[in-house]
Sequence to fold (532 residues):
Amino acid sequence: MSELNHVLEFLVRDYECDMQGVVNNAVYQNYLEHARHEFIKTLGIDFAEMARQKINLVVVRAELDYKQPLVSGDRFRVATRLEKISPVRYGFIQEIQRLADGALVLQGKIIGTALNEKGRPRLPKEIRDAFDR
Amino acid sequence: MSELNHVLEFLVRDYECDMQGVVNNAVYQNYLEHARHEFIKTLGIDFAEMARQKINLVVVRAELDYKQPLVSGDRFRVATRLEKISPVRYGFIQEIQRLADGALVLQGKIIGTALNEKGRPRLPKEIRDAFDR
Amino acid sequence: MSELNHVLEFLVRDYECDMQGVVNNAVYQNYLEHARHEFIKTLGIDFAEMARQKINLVVVRAELDYKQPLVSGDRFRVATRLEKISPVRYGFIQEIQRLADGALVLQGKIIGTALNEKGRPRLPKEIRDAFDR
Amino acid sequence: MSELNHVLEFLVRDYECDMQGVVNNAVYQNYLEHARHEFIKTLGIDFAEMARQKINLVVVRAELDYKQPLVSGDRFRVATRLEKISPVRYGFIQEIQRLADGALVLQGKIIGTALNEKGRPRLPKEIRDAFDR
Fold:
């Protein structure tokens, strides 16, 4: 059984910070997306290849709890766990933690589905397989 | 009593679209933020001026329900409503609607607070006044 | 003969500003791109439609002279002029001007071409026609 | 004498790609900026700290030659070299190379200066020292 867990380390880039001197709220979604896409690659799912095949992995809901801001120079880790929600929906439980002190930066829950070329929800085999492993 | 409602129109820009040919998930947070900042300006609150005074308006939670994607060329409207949640928290109820057909694109609830220079939550007078009007 | 000139007005959005409190350098390229895409639409060329047809309009060189920074709340205008450079290359001469005082913010020259599905440079008929008008 | 050279490796993130399925033109400026800021850190200059001290490192001109697009999954390297241009100006010669095949992706020349609180150009001691080493 493959682990449905994944951890990826990042470094804040200065262009991601806004006039408050902290990472802008929207940028955390970029971090979370990148972590999810790297994670699903380890399950054999390539987001870009899916898009070319007109199978669109889409987010249907995002819940984000902002706990502490990241600032220039911060290193952090995005931990991602995948869980099945329904035959056509999956959830990513994601957490951002600052490396220097282990502070919790953000907790997120991202619910997604996959839409085939007709716009019908249908999970790709690789995701269904992952849940069965 | 001033209306705690605001509507702002936008046009999708091509650089906001990702390889699926739709507006990237994170970009909706940019739209919502811009709409909120334009809204609070009508209440006498300038986000940039606040930041210069070291009063930081911050988001503590975001809930985003993605209903329909926006694509290149779409015009849309962000409607924003402000409500008091507690003495130190406020909520923005936001909705994105595509202009061409009125389709609901996204529903969001953004909970925020204001932190003074010491990092203590304290709503600026202009927001408290807005709630009292 | 259609005018090979175009002007588009924008408002700085707070998320476009970085920790220096000014619009981040890279964001000006977003502004310029959006202005170019709106401009070529008036010539009958839709960037997104081209991309779907696998005709890729691409930038081969950008020269950007930063004169004055834009800050939160600034309204500005992007003026764009199109000129033919060679049978397969065109140039956009672009200028950003702050509305409040007419200050010159940025001068840019963006050289582009169009690549067909085989990656060969070939200008679309609409652009060639525009030059012949 | 410290080397005025620096190399940083990156991985394309999917949100950086646009509807053509390639990294958007503006995003390369993000890459270049991040590489420059990491480079100057090795010279003892922290961009964020400078900004807090109201010494603003600013770009006055950027020249970017786009050679090959990067796509989802590409790993690449940004090589940066710093050279003195005048008592108040410095230039970064930057090159992006795809790791898989060594293809040249982009060549850039970024000319910058530093402005003190009064907006007068004046290079910080650390940069002047770097040139003298």
Chain A touches chain C at residues 14-15, 17-19, 21, 24, 26, 72 (CB under 8 Å).
